[in-house]
Design a protein that fits this description.
Elements (H helix, E strand, L loop, with lengths): L1 E5 L2 E5 L1 H17 L7 H12 L8 H10 L1 H10 L2 H14 L1
Antiparallel strand pairs: 1-2
Helix pairs in contact: 1-2, 1-3, 2-3, 2-4, 3-4
Length: 96
């Protein structure tokens, strides 16, 4: 299972949800005729799958926009990650 810490509460992305989101992202990539062997496309797919704020029904739309504007998608996925959640408090503390 993948775990994300968000606002001090653990939210789990179960294997079943991960599988379903991945299937949907790959289905959308095929419809968009994206080359899923390219690292950039894999990164965008991963970000769409990881960001739980993106409803599964919107993955295709977000994926298509992410090709043109990847920074917003990647920043959103990173903001929900465990790494970001652990770095932010330290960054804020040391910025004072």
């Amino acid at each position: 299972m993948l775990c994300y810490l968000m606002e001090r509460e653990q939210i789990v992305l179960s294997e079943e949800i991960l599988y379903e989101r991945t299937k949907e992202a790959l289905r959308c990539a095929r419809l968009l005729e994206l080359d899923t062997t390219k690292q950039f496309i894999k990164t965008c797919l991963s970000a769409c799958i990881a960001d739980k704020r993106i409803h599964i029904n919107n993955i295709g739309e977000v994926l298509s926009h992410s090709i043109a504007y990847p920074s917003k998608l990647l920043a959103g996925a990173y903001e929900t990650s465990e790494l970001h959640q652990s770095i932010t408090p330290v960054l804020e503390e040391l910025s004072l």
